[in-house]
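Study this:
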Amino acid sequence: MKTSGLSGGVFVPPVSFSLMNAIRPNIRGMAGYVPGEQLNSPDIVKLNTNENPYPPSPRVFEAIRAALTGDKLRKYPQPFGDTFRKAAGKVLGVDPDSILIGNGSDDILTILTRAFVPEGGLIASPTPSYILYKSLAEIQGAKFQTVPFADDWSLPNPWPVAAANLTFLPNPNSPSGSCLRLPVLERLAEQVGGPLVLDEAYADFAEWNGLPLVKELPNVIVTRTFSKSYALAGIRFGFAVADPDTVRELLKVKDSYNCDVLSLAAATAAIEDQGYFADVRDRILATRGRMQAELSKLGFRVTGSQANFLWCRRNDKPVKPMYEALKAKNILVRYMNYAGYGDGLRISVGTDAEIDKLLAELRKVV
């Protein structure tokens, strides 16, 4: 019986062949990124993945319905998202050619890693922060070095990893919700040896952002997502802003059509409706302020947040049993434990009714 070679013109691999053995060792050795629980039953109060508690702009639904008509689904989408880039450029006050579209901001982070980091290179990031950065380094076969935040969520000066090929800085940060100010970002951009990526997934909830630095500093790239402030987590759309010359190079790295017709239509409609965006943002910020006050009354140490979530810790008792008690009542929050920093609950800002239910249950378990 033939076990290898060609059989009837078809290659038959040896019996000992295993696809697992063909996978790169660094992939087999990595743990992989683990998203938050996605239990989407209507009975669940979902406060664990920082989704927007309110629906997208009504214009989004109109745009999606329009995209479902005629030949739009039969044909390829705009490869560079030119219609979106023009709309976003007008709203943000940037050159449309400085915008790179992506299938969520995670896609953008992947494109940046592929473009800037060689195999065996180095990615740096503060910690605790977004754990996907480590996965991106491992996939690329690169080294990953973290720099601890101080207790007040500031960064060391000078920045100790000047030789990194790429530095990721989530700002506002997760899980803390803290946000470094522009002078600190400028100083960091001058100290890193390569591109500085300001991962601004939550910037729309903050009082300031790093977008002005893209025009001032040649190595700064800003990334944004529509999953949070524009309530489009299910659509998957994000973008980056960098100097146009850099974007032209990054276009070579992205998938040919990395954003589909529906996501482009939805994102364009969402960013054009700034009135609706501002109204939803104001509601979330008001609820965030109420949450912080009430959770503090319950004995939590709540970090001042510039995002749509709060980082809540305690000195007197463990918080994991609280997470479990809430889950038993169909209320999901995110339990996180970081070596050297302890554990805490990251709680997304929900509707006022959802937060009332959360607070009622927490009063029982606290």
The chain has a mean pLDDT of 94. Residues 45-54+275-365 form a domain with the Aspartate Aminotransferase, domain 1 fold (CATH 3.90.1150.10).
